[in-house]
Structures are given as C-alpha cells and as structure tokens.
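Appendix B, example 12.
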Amino acid sequence: MSKDFMVARKPASLREKFTVYLLHKAIHAHALLHKKRAPWGLQTHELVNYPAQSLGKALGDFLQQEKLEPIPKLERHDVYHILLDYNTHLKDEAGLYFFLFGNGKKTLFAVGTILFAACMFPEHWTYLYKQYKRGQQSFPIIKLKFKELLDYNYHDMKKVVFRQKIENVDLLNKLCEQA
C-alpha cells in the first residue's frame, strides 16, 4: 500500500498536512475496528480485469488511475468514490462523508469525520451541506454488499443510486435481496 493511499495530490497547507496525517491514522484504526468484516481479497490488477462496464472494472480503473490499492476491510469506501463521483482530494473526501451521513450512515467514525471536516474546512460548509442533502435524496447504499455487485453494470448502479430508471431486472432483484 502506498503511503498516500487517500489523497491524490500532495497537501499544500499545514492544515491539509495535519488533516491527511490524522486521516491516515484514522483509516488504520477504522480497519482494526472491523475485525469481523472479511477483506475482499482483490487487488487493483484483478479489478481492472473485470468485464467492461462492470462495477469491478470501474473500481479497478479508478484505483489504477489514482495509483491506489484497496484497503482490506474498507474496500467499499473506494466504491463510494466511483458511484458518487467524488475524487480523493480532501474537499471531496469530506463531501463523501457528508453524503453518507445524509444517506443514513450514523457511525461514530462518520459523525467524527463530518464534525472534524466542518471544523477544519469552514470555507466549504455550503458544499458540504449540499452533499448531505444529496445523500438524503439518494437510494440508501450504506448496507449494500458491493463485493456481490462487482459484476453488475456500473452505469446501472449509478442510476439506482441517483433514483433514475433502469431496466436491468437482475440488478434490481439483487438489490432487493440485499435490502
């Protein structure tokens, strides 16, 4: 795993450097809290070999582009990035957590992250609030088992998240099973 597993560009300000340092520590602690969660056992080079248009392929392409490897037990976080259109810069990482909070993720880690982000980045409050509202309006995704969905069409998955019409009956049935 590369040292810069979360933030694609080098942090510029002291505030960004401090935030990245804390995020690195928090991510490792968060993974330890999920001892019972099974890692997917997939690396970027395996994900890029999934079928074209699949969620797995899109995830692999994203990780490859960002020069990242999945973090064991936290792989779903990378899926959130591609399904919800967030990059790996700090503003978007914070926006992602505001989206998830609006979408129903009320864990201690999520609450801590949004409170920390709100304090550290007051200039982004309007953006963060919009992400929270966006999460409220979207299909609830926090309990989806994304590993089971890696073979499904990525574009159809995005449409489901943003409550657009799809005709992929297999995907709809799979999501109903997971609900």
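Residues 22 and 145 are 28 Å apart (CA to CA). The first helix runs from residue 14 to 33.
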